[in-house]
């Protein structure tokens, strides 16, 4: 009995010992496997770092790699370049097929070569004023080839300015068309209807149309009852070319007429204050404004207010602007001042 019990205890001790040995061996293998995996991961990480550095070294980027935003900008620029290339190809194709006007292609080069004019002189006239126009042509306005010579040599354009008849295409319109065919010295305002009360709007449209037709330093408005020394006008304007926003004329101010029976009645007299006095402005017989001011008028033509008289209207457009008001005594046509370049008939 004792011998059998002893054998059982010995067998149990051996089994426990063998289990502990097996567990220890398994633990050793697991530890070795863990070390092996860790070493492999470390080697792979070092390989990746080496490859990145080598790639940077060979591409020359180093550590200054571009950001994601920069990459997107580059991609966008490349796309825009592709679009521009396609458009250029389409434009070249259109030119070959004749869809682009030769005139448009050559306009830029022509404008660059063409010398800027000194002045465009607009003589505001009306229907039934042929006698005045003929008197001006005989007195101081060249005609025919002499008119073209004045443009080429002195850079001065002169045109009679007139609108259309309220009965479009009637005899009044036809007379002007025939006169212009013969003498070619009109600027016809197709969007303006000739009426005495619309003279301020006509003056505004003259500046707008003249700017579209000619590139000049100055634009001059003259009445068709004024006799003018055109050479003296050119000399005065040339002396003010360096003033970018010049408003040149016989400057004046005076009382505002509030009675309808007055010749110079101003329907909106109440806008000029209790003193009923006009602000400083150039006489309407003749005044000149530089191109920058004409551009301002052209851009804002739809919102620029006109009053009963064109000289007051023009003066009102420049209030609040950085404008050089030049009080030129030689533009005072009605005062017969000494040295005046003009005279009213």
UniProtKB/TrEMBL annotation:
How does the record say this protein sits in the membrane? Answer: Single-pass type II membrane protein
EC code: 2.4.1.-
Q: Which cofactor does it need?
A: Mn(2+)
List the Pfam families hit by this protein, alphabetically. Galactosyl_T
Q: Where in the cell is it found?
A: Golgi apparatus membrane
Question: Record's Gene Ontology CC terms?
Answer: Golgi membrane
Which pathway features in its UniProt record? Answer: Protein modification; protein glycosylation
Q: Which UniProt keywords apply?
A: Glycosyltransferase, Golgi apparatus, Manganese, Membrane, Signal-anchor, Transferase, Transmembrane, Transmembrane helix
Query: Which ranges does the record mark as transmembrane?
Result: 21-43
Q: InterPro entries, alphabetically?
A: Glyco_trans_31
List the Gene Ontology MF annotations in alphabetical order.
galactosyltransferase activity
Quote the protein name from its UniProt record.
Hexosyltransferase
